[in-house]
Specification:
- The chain is α+β, with helices and mostly antiparallel strands.
- The chain has a domain of about 325 residues: Cytochrome p450.
- Helices cover about 50% and strands about 10% of the residues.
- A hairpin with a 3-residue loop joins strand 1 and strand 2.
- Helix 7 packs antiparallel against helix 8, helix 8 runs antiparallel to helix 15 and helix 9 crosses helix 12.
- The termini are far apart.
Amino acid sequence: MLIISPDLCSFCLPLHSTVETPPGTMIPSDPITLVLSIILCIFVVLFLFGRKKNAYNLPPGPRPLPLIGNLHILDMKKPYETMHQLSKKYGPVYTIQIGIEKVVVICGFEAVKDALVNHADEFSARPKIPILDEISKGHGIIFASYDNWKVMRRFALSTLRDFGMGKETIENRISEESDHLVQKFKSFKGEPFDNLMILNASVCNIICSILMSRRFDYEDPIILKLLKMNNENAILSGTPVAMLYNAFPSVMRWFTSLMDKIGKNMDELHAFSEESFKKQKKQLDVNDQRNLIDSFLVKQQEEKPNPKLYFTDENLSVLVSDLFDAGMETTSTTLRWGILLMMKYPEIQKKVQSEIDKVIGSNEPQVIHRKEMPYTDAVVHEIQRFGNIVPTNVPHATTKDVNFRGYFLPKGIQVLPLLTSVLFDKDHFVKADEFYPGHFLDSKGNFVRKEAFMPFSAGKRSCVGESLAKMELFLFFTKLLQNFTFKAPPGAILDFNPAVGFLCGPVAYKTCAISRL
């Protein structure tokens, strides 16, 4: 704790405008002078605080201004782009200041891999970010820290596998859902339509089947309301106002209703989760666990004698919301990029369809077909790379003081392993700024894995649903291009500037799905 001595305070106050008050304290008589004096004191405190931090030998970075840090040089709508550019001047590891908080930014595949894989334990914490902390309150899996996230992650991984992730059972569910999706697209009869809510609902049904053994119709008002709130929060949490709120929460809460909107949406999402698991609790059969919620409730019963509880109702509510969000938003956003890119590059779309016709024909796409379809596999991977849907990554923090690449980082400092700098690393992707499926093909047209392909992050906090997402993307994308040719509406201008939000999705667009079968 920093203690300001009386001598320091008196130094900050201008002596020409003071009045004597018992027992001899000097205070300004003019309100304006008082405000200026307080600001001067704050600058002195920040100066001393900054000197203390620098004792850790943080990486170099742009010079911050008092109070605002480096906010003035960031593109507030696309901060990841500014951060990527700064690495060209300051190197793959540098420090930037957001408000008064120092953040270590790690750029490029080698440096990010070094942090998340070679130093996995040291970089596995989450920082205290006001918006994210107020949403999760330390519960769940995505934003939780300490032992809670480890327990929830182990449970989620094992339970997702138990209920079919990566297995034929979940593949069958995806295939059935893709049939519903095809029928919905056909209903537009080639006329322009917005695919946002349809794709969200379709992908959402896969994770809902695992969480609660439930499927929703695409027009169901319950799922439409949940998806709308989820989309709104994903947008709000990535806006410039959100960045300012995270930097100055005690001030910004008086000037914006941001947290009221996000909080209200989260309350309703959690209420839906709670209603679902309360119903299942009444019907629970420990010998017949139907889904992830059932498995959690069984763990809850087994844990009761333990004084340190993890399987609580609060954790279940946030865990369900986390998996609902992560299991739907990222995959559906990637598919939306895929359709937009096929509209932009009809020659690539045609090559994918030729491979589908040759390998699958009119049969049902299956995961085993992927090995026989290198070009389609390469296109799906390139959509993920080029789409760059989580450009900043979910923020990390150090679990202890750590020596990293010649720098000494303190325990708890926020770290951003910038995924956009990995996916657009020109040392690993020769045409990084272009949509180029050749990144994943050799000279003979065989599929090639790239170590720098890291859309799901890496290390101990990587996406728990990675294998499910890969299966969904291949099956949904292949089924759609087997059945449709996607074209832009007449006169439409395709916009590849990403929408503002925590996820880097395409701006709203309409497509024409022309039936092939």
